[in-house]
Write a structure and sequence with these properties.
single chain, alpha/beta, four-stranded antiparallel sheet, eight-stranded mixed sheet, 12 strands
C-alpha cells in the first residue's frame, strides 16, 4: 500500500486561505509549471451539467478538446474518475481518450491502456434483476445497469426517494457483502465495496506518468469526497463544484460546471468560445 504522506518529488503542498485567491494562484502556477500537477476530474455535475436522465447528459462542444490540451500540457497526467462506465465516458469525449476510473474505480484504464475491471457476481446479477423488476413508476425511476454497478435515478420523482432507498437496501442484502450502497444527487447506487475514487486516485498516482506530482481533484458530490481526502494527503488540493456546500474536504469551491469549463478553457490555452454550448 502506498503511504498517505509519500514525499513529493515535484512542487510543494498547497495551503488553505482565501478561496478566490487560492484558485487564482493555482491557475497561475499551472500556467507556469504544468509538469508539477496531476489532474483528476469527476464527470457528471463537475465537467458536465446534471441532466434529468442519465442518458441525456451532453458534453459541450470544445470540452473534450480542452481536456486533451490539458492532458498534453501535463504530459498525460490527467484522469477522469466517474460513476459511469469507461465505455460511456469514452463516448462522451470521443475521439479523445483519457486515463479513466469507471464505476467509482471498479474499472481502471491507465494512461498506457492497461485495463482492470471487477466482474459482477451471480448474487449481484440477482440484485440488479430485483431492482429492475420492483422499482416504482419505471417511467420516472430510471434503472441504469452499469455492469459491475447499478443505479436508480429518481430526479424525475423526488417524492419516491424513501421507497427507492428501501428497495436498494433490499437489493444490497441480495447482492451480499461484496457490494455497497452509494448515495448521490437524486441517485442511489449499488457498487463494489472495495471501489472508491480515493483508491482509484492513489492507483493512478503510483504510475510513472502521475508519480511525484501534486494531485488536483475536482468533483461535486459525496462520491468525490474520498478523492478529495486522498489528494490532500498527497500534498495536493481539492475543488468542490456547487453552491451552499457546508461539509466537504475540499479547499476551494467553484459555483457550477460552467465556471469550471470556463477555467479549463483558460488554462488549456484555448481561445475558442465553442465550449459555451447552451451555457449562455
Amino acid at each position: 500500500m502506498e503511504r498517505d504522506h509519500e514525499p513529493m518529488l515535484k512542487g510543494t503542498s498547497f495551503s488553505s486561505g482565501d478561496i478566490s485567491q487560492s484558485l487564482w494562484d493555482l491557475r497561475e502556477r499551472f500556467h507556469a509549471e504544468p509538469d508539477c500537477f496531476a489532474l483528476f476530474f469527476d464527470i457528471d455535475g463537475t465537467l458536465l451539467d446534471l441532466a434529468p436522465t442519465p442518458d441525456s447528459v451532453v458534453a459541450p462542444e470544445g470540452l473534450s478538446e480542452n481536456l486533451a490540451a490539458l492532458s498534453d500540457r501535463t504530459a498525460g497526467a490527467l484522469a477522469l474518475l466517474t460513476g459511469r462506465s469507461i465505455a460511456f465516458a469514452d463516448k462522451l469525449f470521443s475521439p479523445h481518450q483519457f486515463a479513466l476510473a469507471g464505476l467509482h474505480g471498479a474499472q481502471l484504464r491507465y494512461a498506457d491502456g492497461t485495463y482492470y475491471a471487477t466482474k459482477p457476481s451471480r448474487s449481484f446479477d440477482a440484485a440488479k434483476a430485483l431492482l429492475k423488476a420492483q422499482r416504482p413508476e419505471p417511467e420516472k425511476v430510471i434503472f441504469e445497469d452499469k455492469g459491475a454497478a447499478v443505479a436508480l435515478h429518481y430526479r424525475l420523482a423526488p417524492d419516491l426517494a424513501p421507497t427507492v432507498k428501501a428497495l436498494m437496501k433490499k437489493a444490497a442484502r441480495v447482492a451480499g457483502g461484496g457490494w455497497q450502497i452509494q448515495h448521490g444527487k437524486m441517485v442511489i447506487e449499488l457498487r463494489p465495496a472495495m471501489a472508491n475514487k480515493g483508491e482509484a486516485l492513489k492507483c493512478f498516482m503510483k504510475t510513472p506518468i502521475f508519480k511525484g506530482r501534486l494531485p488536483v481533484a475536482v468533483g461535486d458530490d459525496l462520491t468525490d469526497e474520498d478523492m478529495f481526502i486522498a489528494a490532500k494527503r498527497m500534498g495536493g488540493t481539492a475543488i468542490r463544484i456547487g453552491h451552499n456546500i457546508a461539509d466537504t474536504a475540499a479547499d476551494m469551491v467553484l459555483p457550477s460546471p460552467f465556471a469550471l469549463r470556463a477555467c479549463l478553457r483558460s488554462v488549456a490555452g484555448s481561445r475558442s468560445q465553442s465550449g459555451r454550448q447552451k451555457d449562455e
